Amino acid sequence: MRASWNWLRSLLPALDVSAKDAADRLTMAGLEVEAITPYGRELGPIVVAEVQGVEPHPSRSGLRLVRVGPGGEAASQTVVCGAPNVPGPGGLVALAPLGTHLPAKGLTVGSRAIGGVVSEGMLCSESELGVGDEADGILVLPAGAARAGEKLAAWAPDLVDEVFDIGVTPNRADALGHLGLARELAALYGLEVRPPAFERPAAAGRAPIEVAVESPERCLYLGAAVVDGVRVGPSPLWLRARLARLGVRPINNVVDVTNLLTLLYGQPSHAYDLARLRGGRLEARRARAGERLTTLDSAERALDADDLVIADGAGPVGLAGVMGGESSEIRPDTTRVALECANFEPRGVRRTTRRHGLHTEGSHRFERGVDRTTAPLALEHGVALLAELAGGRLEGGVAAVSAPEPARPAIRLRSGRLDALLGVSVPWAEARDVLERLGCRVEAAGEAEARVTPPSWRADLGREEDLIEEVARVRGLDAIPGVLPPIWPQPPRAEGKLEAKVRQRALELGLSEALTYGFVSRRELEALGAPAPSVVLSKPLQEERSVMRTSLLPGLLEAVGRARRRGERSARLFCVGTRFLPPRAGSPLPTEERGFAAALAGPRASYLEKAVEHDVYDAKAVALELVERVSGHEARAEAYAAAERPSRLHPRAAGRVLVGGRAVGSFGLLHPSVVDALELGGALAVVELDLGALGELGERVPSARPVPRLPPVTRDVSVYVRDGVPAGEVEAAVREAAGELCAGVEIFDLFRGPGVPEGHHSLTFHVVYRDPAAAAGRPEGRTLTDAEVDERHRAVNEAVRARFGATLRS
What we know:
Structural class: alpha+beta
Shape: elongated
């Protein structure tokens, strides 16, 4: 909401504070003034000048030499001007003398020769002065309106103003008009509001227009008056300037009056060309099947049965509370104007604006609720303004239809409750005075109790707490002392520590965190083979956010897919969050389990070599390294049995993460069918960890061992095994057969190809043997002999051959 400081002061003649002070008070009272913009400061040097002569430029077509001066015997000066509307001798114009700076155009007027003639100033348009949008011609003042030689700002002081940008909250619809803001300032400073005075039009017989309401639950008041003899033309300068600085484009004196009423009362109105209203009537009704309406923005709209329209005798002429129709708009030849003011039910207007994608100044106010008592007053004021500014006169009386207005119930207010809720003692007389200044009717109901009836313009006041809040904000929230409540000591909380540690370790591994929604779609969960959702939103904003996730992968994969669609092929993302699984037995609530997920897509980082796509081994490395860094326990990978593998993972590239025999997660490539179903644009690897299971393992404190002083003895085991034999099982057999002398086993070669029996592959393990005492750094440790190592190594070879049917490579 933009508000004119001049306009507010005209409604509060006793207000004697600066704009900055008023803005601070409004902000502290809950109506935040976000900015104060000065207007018209540049008008100081601008003078009113009289045109003394006009002649063509001697060498430039389209330009004229205008001789202007302050009148009388004073010296005149010549200005080169190309405006088409320069008046003849005796006309009054706005002159910017040499050296004047015009911020609206970012220029300084200087003496310069144009076609050999020196221009000694500049005749200014409204846009150049910053008082309006008109730029096609210079500003011409009405004859006799000012004295030549005086300052323009002295002749029209309203052109110099300060405009507030106010962030009005949705519950304060009363603050969407200057009268409502004036009431607020009056309550804050203890002043009286002087509403704008106007001569109420006298009713002379029956109105020549008929009004009707077919849907009284949607239209609470509909009034119309006919103004005859209207001359459509530009509005006076003060009105054009006021509208322009408040963000409203001036159009003509009739339409400008309706905009002025909206900005003054917060009550939208609309003007129709009566000659273009069929049947001489206005009716508020719901749209009928097949009806269409071309609105003032020249868009043809198909109407819905829920749309409330204003119709004449043949069809819709406006979307009620939103925008008028093009067929009945005010035109230059309009002479009879039907001025309409109405009050519409907010929710219906809100549905219409969303349905048609229209948001206007009128709908903005009706959606929040407009005071029902304002429409008749605004209608009368509009008729008076049309008579003053457009030369019209009221024809007949005012036609109106109004639904019964229910009485507002009184609200009980107790002094004890007031003090208890605010935490400070508020004098009861002061509290009552504050509410009365806000327009409430306060009736005593005991020594420290009252019955308070809010004013019609404060629909947001409905309970005792609302009244207490009003007392607090008008008195000043700074009057409530800050008291630090006692804090009871509690044992340290462990919640969130594991998640924070997982995030940090994931970042150390080169992953980037993605913040994903907890809401996903059923389709995504079904494609991933995740558990069925147990929490379903009754009114989701969209199908893609209709259930709560049972897997962290949908949001992560959505981020990867979006990146790929925008040309970013490589992604290393992770997220930490909660999965909402079906309730456990005896619990009505879903089971919330903490989890971690990562997605590796595109080529891994490479330098001076061909880029290689992320594969299952990258996922395995991330999973194992992350588990070991977080828990301190040794982790190992194990391939899934076919019956146990999750359906979302690739049959030949998937595994689980084990710690001490307990599964804590999984990794692998996504199944191609999942990639296609979710339109991910290519293969990618994923990691999933159960943080609950990981947390139950506890954190193992690392221990240090001395560096062995004696050298190890190493041997290699090279065998051919069948393709179905996992390398991990062979490694475990080697470790077991090597016994206590085994200090480590590492696979370093896997080969398929020439020289390897069909259906087999070659595995090579590096085995490190060391005396246990020497490995522990104890003094009794010794160096192993070749004989005892050879004996133990023969046992290893025999164990592998016997258990897996392996063939030793020579």
